[in-house]
Amino acid sequence: MAMEIKACLVVALRSFFFLSPTSCQSCPEYQKQALLQFKSSILAITTPSIFNSSDVSQLLQSWNSSSDCYGWVEVECNDSPNSTSRVVITGLYLDALFTHLSPQPRVESSMLAPIFHIRSLEELSISDNNIQGEIPGVGFANLSNLVLLYMEGNNLSGPIPPHLFHLPLLRDIYLRDNSLSGQLPADIGNLTSLQRLSSQVPTTIPIETIFLGFAGNKLSGGFPPFNFTNLSKLQHLELQDNNLTGELPNFFSQISTLQVLNLWNNHFQGLIPKSICNLSNLRIPDVSNNYLTREIPKEFGNLVGMINERPPNSPSPNLYTIGIYFSSILSSQENQLFPKLRDLILNWKKSKQGISTDKLNMYTFLDLSNNQLFGQIPASLGALKALKLLNISCNKLSGKILISFGDLENIETIDLSHNNLSGSIPLTLTKLQQLTILDVRNNELIGQIPDGGQMGTMILYPNYFANNSGL
């Protein structure tokens, strides 16, 4: 659905902003022929009946020899810097061409060869197309004007070629959710313009980096071997859904700008470092589904970003670029019209869901679930008044449910299930006006379930209180 929305928006906005050159303007013939050759390659891997009934047919219908490519769908043209009477192709937006085809055709990466003749290209988006094979590094080396590159959600394999990191203007690279192997070449240090990288783990990262995303790959071994402390602008770190092992490092405390830390679904072990609690801007730490042990640090109560609620109209920090990011070559009017189409994936309300990037600056989460934490719940957690979600389920926690949880005035979900908690459910929870889920199943609780406020609605969810013999 997100990709369909994107396609509609791109078509409409390209038409309004880019597809109105004067009649004397035309794309270079060699660029037009390159795109026609690419279209022919698509035709060659799909049967006519399937192609004609698919979205890709409608998308590429405007690509024909009788019209100029400045008017083609999903093709962006701008004035050539070398000519006042000619436009050149600067953007191709070809995501999810085969989404509604079953089965999806096998797209070899060699099919991209015609595109590499369009040296004026600044933005290339070819995500979610089932592209297979290695990334054609020699071809990409021709695209010296490339600024944004999106190839996530394909089936690309092999190492990432060093050619990509010699493109002088390249700023955003999205390669995650592929089958890439190995590490990035050290050549990545050549990318002085790089701000956002979503792929395999490199050995060096430019200090201007704001977003690092290595999620959903097959990374193994210890924590990535590069110096995070130099990343003075890093706000968002994604390492979730890999096979990383070892202990969590202490250097997190030196990344004062960090706001989102996603480490879920790895094999990290040992204790949660107290240094994480020194990050005054941290609002979303998710270390669930690991093998972390010992007690929950009481210092979590010092996380300022989880204590102070952000004003509803406060500007979103410049970190929500998970998959789709439009560069500064777009006008300010266009940037306002284009939405951020990818969400942050979190364990929200009992399932992994995408949280809208437009609203993410208003949310705070703490997810320590599915580890091996023991001891009592630290009383300091009751001070995190901006929390929307608290999940410490599936651990070995003991003691009582905190009375101070009644002070979590913004909380919507509390999941304490599958622990060894005892005592009664505090009456203070009836004060929580936004609470929609309280899950305490599989503990050792006793007494009455409080009735009043939102707690009065919990009778609709008896499973959330199951396997507590004294309730």
In short:
The chain has 471 residues and is of the alpha/beta class. Helices cover 12% and strands 21% of the residues.
Question: How does this structure look, described?
Answer:
This protein has 471 residues and is of the alpha/beta class. Helix content is 12%, strand content 21%. It is built from seven helices and 28 strands. The strands form six sheets. It has a ten-stranded mixed sheet with strand order 1-2-4-6-8-10-11-13-15-17. A four-stranded parallel sheet has the order 3-5-7-9, with no helix packed on it. Strands 12-14-16-18 form a four-stranded parallel sheet, with no helix packed on it. The relative contact order is 0.07.
Layout: helices, strands, pairs:
Blueprint: H1 2-17, H2 29-44, H3 48-52, H4 55-60, E1 75-79, E2 87-93, E3 107-108, E4 123-125, E5 131-134, H5 137-140, E6 148-150, E7 155-158, E8 172-174, E9 179-180, E10 196-198, E11 211-213, E12 220-221, E13 236-238, E14 243-247, E15 260-262, E16 267-270, E17 284-286, E18 291-292, H6 304-307, H7 332-337, E19 344-348, E20 351-355, E21 365-367, E22 374-376, E23 389-391, E24 396-400, E25 413-415, E26 420-423, E27 437-439, E28 444-445
Parallel strand pairs: 2-4, 3-5, 4-6, 5-7, 6-8, 7-9, 8-10, 10-11, 11-13, 12-14, 13-15, 14-16, 15-17, 16-18, 21-23, 22-24, 23-25, 24-26, 25-27, 26-28
Antiparallel strand pairs: 1-2, 19-20
